[in-house]
Amino acid sequence: MDLSIRPIFVYGTLMSAELRSALLGREAPCCTAVLPASAGYRRLTVNGEGYPALIRETQGEGQAIVGQLLSALTADDLKLIVEYEGDEYFVSTLKVMGSESVEVEAAVFLWKEDLRSRLGHKGMPWDFSEWLTMGLEEAVAEARSVRSKHVIDKAEQRLRLADRVDDEIGEVINADSGKPAWDDEDNLLLSRIALACERDPNSRVGNYDKP
């Protein structure tokens, strides 16, 4: 799913402005939003953890879940959020009620069904206020760690790209003149490679670690 085309509804630790700032390096635009009970989901505490899971209710009614709707997110913001959430969740699309009771289609990180056993037999509701007191400090430290790793990885990826471009320039140096045998089309191609790599580090374009 392309997260860039819709806002993200967050219902757990990312509701904390302090944590979001630690993760994203800025405060993303947000507003209060509600996932209605009719959607059929519950917010439960993951056993042994401080964070919640959002999972479809199979034996009763869902609950109205108050969260935050994050918008105007950059490509870097989205990558950081995905890295922070980890592989216990998958992304789906749900309709939530945004500001002024306007229905909004939002991306939501849902708990994987095959991990339902980690929520306990009945499941304990997750309380944001309690988490702010008991778990915020540890979560903020984790968010900063995720951001730090992301920044380092991005810098290393740029260095690999720069080294590769330098190597390619060296291969076309005119031995007589000592000047690169570039024309405008060559420079445009290099610019496009750099831009593609910047937007999507996993792209085959400019990704020199993959065959």
TrEMBL record:
Which GO molecular function entries does the Swiss-Prot or TrEMBL record give? transferase activity
Q: Name one Pfam family in it.
A: GGACT
The residues covered by the Gamma-glutamylcyclotransferase AIG2-like domain are: 8-114
Q: Does the keyword Iron-sulfur apply?
A: no
Q: Write down the CDD domains for this protein, in alphabetical order.
A: GGCT_like
Q: Which residues form a coiled coil?
A: none
Q: What are the entry keywords?
A: Transferase
Q: Which InterPro entries match?
A: AIG2-like (IPR045038), AIG2-like_dom (IPR009288), GGCT-like (IPR013024), GGCT-like_sf (IPR036568)
Family membership: Belongs to the gamma-glutamylcyclotransferase family.
The name on file for this protein is Putative gamma-glutamylcyclotransferase
